[in-house]
Every structure is written in structure tokens, then in C-alpha cells.
Specification:
mainly alpha
């Protein structure tokens, strides 16, 4: 059972990373080719990151088939760990209070996504 939750969490993380990369490319193009400033996109990108984490939790919950809350939480915790590693190893910075709050929100929204993913699970997963 734990193997299934972990493997479904990896699918969730892959979903999150694909969505975040697409958002990064889109926002970079918007910043490059328009007069919009970076500060204008902060809230939009934050909302999109929550949507991406929700989708990752949804996919992981659907793939696990049971205990969607655990699959979603595992997905968000692993995603937060990856972000922490990139930030710490790449930029020599840890999480501050604001980031801890955001990543706690990630866990909660991924749990919700995982619970919904289990309940709407179909044959397409």
C-alpha cells in the first residue's frame, strides 16, 4: 500500500512540475513581450501554483485509489522538499515564515485534491 501511495505521489509531483514549467514559460514570455512588471504577476503565479499543487494532489489521489488525503499530503510534502533542496543548495537560503505558510497551504490544498481524486477516480487513471 505504501508503495502505491509513493508511486502515485511521484505522478502528482510530475504533474506539478509540468504545470509550473508551463507557467514559468508563459510568465517569462509575458514579461519579455509586454510592459507588465514582475510584481504584477506575483499573485497570479501564487494562485497558479496552488492550482498546480491541487492538480498534483488530485492525480496522486486518483492513482492511489485509496487514502487520497495521504497521497495528496505525500505529494505536497515531497514537492516542498524538492523546492527546499533547490533553494538551499542552489541559493543557500532556507524557508522563511512566509514560505512555511505557503507550503503549509500546499499540503492542505493537495490533501483536498487527493480526497477529490480518490472520489472521482475513473478508468482513465
Amino acid at each position: 500500500m505504501h508503495q502505491r501511495i509513493f508511486s502515485s505521489a511521484l505522478y502528482g509531483i510530475l504533474t506539478i512540475l509540468v504545470l509550473v514549467i508551463l507557467a514559468s514559460l508563459t510568465s517569462s514570455a509575458i514579461l519579455k513581450f509586454t510592459s507588465i512588471q514582475e510584481g504584477s504577476l506575483t499573485w497570479i503565479l501564487l494562485i497558479f501554483s496552488f492550482l498546480a499543487v491541487f492538480c498534483g494532489g488530485f492525480i496522486s489521489g486518483g492513482r492511489s485509489g485509496q487514502k487520497g488525503w495521504l497521497a495528496g499530503a505525500t505529494t505536497a510534502i515531497l514537492y516542498s522538499f524538492v523546492i527546499f533542496l533547490v533553494q538551499y543548495l542552489g541559493y543557500n537560503q532556507g524557508f522563511d515564515g512566509e514560505q512555511l505558510l505557503v507550503h503549509s497551504g500546499y499540503v492542505l490544498i493537495a490533501i483536498l485534491g487527493g480526497m477529490l481524486g480518490v472520489n472521482v477516480r475513473g478508468e482513465s487513471f
